[in-house]
């Protein structure tokens, strides 16, 4: 069977796709989906992605043992436990916990994809585990790049290209965006960190003083968990 | 002065830009902007881009000596003189004439850009003439890819990358889309026709039997005219 392997370069282009015909992979390399992969790998019970900071705050009132994480414009929002730095998602901090998370781009992309057949989370951290699982699915696949405030960004597209690299031997039809993403990956793959240094987001994140986060998020295959959305919660796919 | 050199990968992303701060270059390589460049080069007095087929028809009623051109989904609309094949824009057909043109993607992108400081038309045909002129302007530049029904396509992005290649020694700040477009151009530049053969649009156009048009549209620097929008008419920039 011929399946489509498509890349949605920014959430602003999602209306062009019949999302309900796809398994969606949400991609926000710096840093939401990297941190989600790391947190689930490290034993977080679940991560609940919410759109608004207020929704995140509301969980505080519920009096339960939630960790609240809110990021806007690359910074932890005042009054929250943490944002989306992967170093906040270590085993000692998250094991057994449920984290409520809102971010500038990643949770936005996820919420726009809710009608998908299934939503999973991708990052360089779980690249091969994710790709291997995708190979076993007999569905169209849409790689949704979270971008930056609806703008195209290179790091998310490059990762989409890395997934395509692992899948393209299979029976998939690629759209132009998938071809482009994969070609960009070919250019960047030998030193992704170096390649991304020239990008706008790299500059922006550097100003925020999170180079260590960036380095962390570009590690390939250090995790094997695939976070999947079940109801409103991201949990480990079993 | 630092200027922005940005690429809008599809018209669906135009709302992300303050178009009024830019000179906009509209790009629809297969085939609208290639044909516009060729028609203006060959002595067409003006080309009037309109959004709807009905607007185009309306010019027939005006009883004047207009050539009416309408294309949808790659084909000439029934009842029209011609569509957007460059071979309809030869000197013998267009010299001294005013052409009213509506196309699937190109005129759409143009109309969304109307608030720009200036709108000019780009294609491989006038690549260097256009780039040289852009170098003399002290303005931000937005390269608007018409795409295919708001989807990203490779041929328009590749051309954006070709323009950037000529401008990037200048004092421009590139966004991620501009970096990506230029990188894709690096991959394709040695044989653009071959590179584009793998794209979806290439397949689509091949089915329409217009390989000769495609070959024509990928000729570099065979024209020097720069079509510019004056009021509602595209005319030769002087």
From TrEMBL, chains A, B:
Reactions catalysed according to its record: (2R)-O-phospho-3-sulfolactate + H2O = (2R)-3-sulfolactate + phosphate
Family: Belongs to the ComB family.
Domain of life: Bacteria
GO molecular function list: 2-phosphosulfolactate phosphatase activity
EC number: 3.1.3.71
Gene3D superfamilies recorded: ComB-like (3.90.1560.10)
Protein name: Probable 2-phosphosulfolactate phosphatase
The protein's required cofactors: Mg(2+)
Species whose genome carries this gene: Mucilaginibacter lappiensis
Lineage: Bacteria, Pseudomonadati, Bacteroidota, Sphingobacteriia, Sphingobacteriales
Top EC category: hydrolase
UniProt entry keywords in alphabetical sequence: Hydrolase, Magnesium
